[in-house]
Every structure is written in C-alpha cells, then in structure tokens.
UniProtKB/TrEMBL annotation:
Superkingdom of origin: Eukaryota
Species the sequence originates in: Triplophysa rosa (Cave loach)
TM spans (from-to): none
Signal peptide per UniProt: 1-23
Entry keyword Transferase: no
GO molecular function per UniProt: chemokine activity; growth factor activity
Annotated GO CC locations: extracellular space
Name recorded for this polypeptide: Stromal cell-derived factor 1
Family listed: Belongs to the intercrine alpha (chemokine CxC) family.
Stretches assigned to the Chemokine interleukin-8-like domain: 29-87
UniProt entry keywords in alphabetical sequence: Chemotaxis, Cytokine, Disulfide bond, Growth factor, Secreted, Signal
Main location: secreted
Entry-linked InterPro entries: Chemokine_b/g/d (IPR039809), Chemokine_IL8-like_dom (IPR001811), CXC_Chemokine_domain (IPR033899), Interleukin_8-like_sf (IPR036048)
Length: 98
C-alpha cells in the first residue's frame, strides 16, 4: 500500500477515537427554563404557579396564565415573596396539627 494512504487511515483512526473536548454535553434537561423574567403579572390572570429548583439554574417561578401562556416571574418580587412566606407558614401549621 502507498504510504500516504496508511498515514491518512492512521490519522482518521486517531481523530475518530480522540475526544473532541472534556466538556460534558448539555442536555435539554439541564438547561434553565427561564431565560428572562418579568416583574409584573396581574395576579388575577395566573392560573397556576410552578416552582423549579435545579442544580444548574437559579430558583425559577413559572406562572401559567388563564390564556395558557407561561411566563417566568422574577422570584424577588414582593408579592411572590409574600405568597411563598404565607404558603410555608400554612404548611408548617398543618404539619404541627398532625
């Protein structure tokens, strides 16, 4: 065989088996849901709230609105902080009554 062909096959074998980088691939599960947040959402338009806390993302609050849109709410907004505080107090009271 020609020496050039052998070298080409050897280089191809090295490139195929060599890792491109040591970085782990980013799966869709590990991506943050909220890329941007809003501060004002009329509370009467909210149908449901979801709270997400994943290792790779900050605390995320997703509101499903009555028109079926989903928006990310800034978790630092005052009304949301008060809502969370009230919900935690309610949970504590119900656990103490058991």
């Amino acid at each position: 065989m020609d020496m050039k062909v052998i070298v080409v096959f050897a280089l191809m074998a090295v490139f195929i088996h060599a890792p491109i980088s040591n970085a782990k691939p980013i799966s869709l599960v590990e991506r943050c849901w909220c890329r941007s947040t809003v501060n004002t959402v009329p509370q009467r338009n909210i149908r449901e709230l979801k709270f997400l806390h994943t290792p790779n993302c900050p605390f995320q609050v997703i509101a499903k609105l009555k028109n079926n849109k989903e928006v990310c709410i800034n978790p630092e907004t005052k009304w949301l902080q008060q809502y969370l505080k009230n919900a935690l107090n309610k949970m504590k009271k119900s656990q103490q009554q058991r």
